[in-house]
Amino acid sequence: MRNVARILPLFFLLWALALQGPLGLTFPPGTEVRLLSPDLKTLYAAWRVQEGRLLPLSPPLSPRPGQEVRLLVSEPGKKPVTLEGVADRGDLWVLLGKERVSFLKLLKELGLAPPERLWP
User: Fold this and answer.
1) 54 lies in a domain?
2) What is the DSSP letter of 116?
């Protein structure tokens, strides 16, 4: 019984982290996502999470396929997080840990209804 009492708090911590998604991101309503050039000078696209969807704030510019980009995620009440990525025909491959993950797939896993493509 003592072992269970020791393991239970660890289990709940891991469960809570799993619910938050990668890097603790949850994309609650009001979260803003910006797609920028690596030097942060060019804004390709910006979105806001509303009603479980990622809605564009302006018409997007298309980065070249294979171009390195930065994704700035600003959740309400939290410090913004910057993720490295590579543009790929309407999607973005984001570096999470040592793996590249489709940003559209990541949004689906977090329970959002992403657009079919992030840009034309």
Assistant:
1) yes
2) S
Condensed to tens digits (0 to 9), the pLDDT of residues 28-66 reads 999 999 999 999 999 999 999 999 999 999 899 999 999
Measured distance CA(98)–CA(78) in Å, rounded:
24
The predicted model scores a pTM of: 0.77
Question: Does residue 6 surpass a pLDDT of 80?
Answer: no
Residue 116 falls inside a structural domain: no
Q: Is residue 97 part of a domain?
A: yes
Report if residue 75 sits inside a domain.
Answer: yes
Count of structural domains, the chain: 1
Return the ∠ at Cα 23 (arms to 92 and 62), rounded to 5°. 15
Q: How many angstroms separate the CA atoms of 107 and 26, rounded?
A: 9
